[in-house]
Amino acid sequence: MQRSDLPVSPPIRAIGLMSGTSCDGIDAALIETDGERVLQTGPGLTTPYDRPFAARLTGLMAGEGDAAAIEAELTRRHAELVLTLLETARLRASDVAIVGFHGQTIRHEPHRRRTWQIGDGPLLAALTGIDVINDFRAADVAAGGQGAPFAPLYHAALAGGLERPIAVLNLGGVGNVTWISGDDALLAFDTGPGNALIDDWCRARIGESCDRGGRLAASGRVDERVLARLMDHPYFTAPAPKSLDRNNFTLDSARALSTADGAATLTEFTAASVAAALAQMPAAPKRWLVTGGGRYNPTIMAALARRLGVPVDPVETVGWDGDLIEAQAFGYLAVRSLRGLPLSVPGTTGVPAPMQGGRLHARPVA
Question: Partners of 147 in the beta sheet?
Answer without folding.
Answer: none
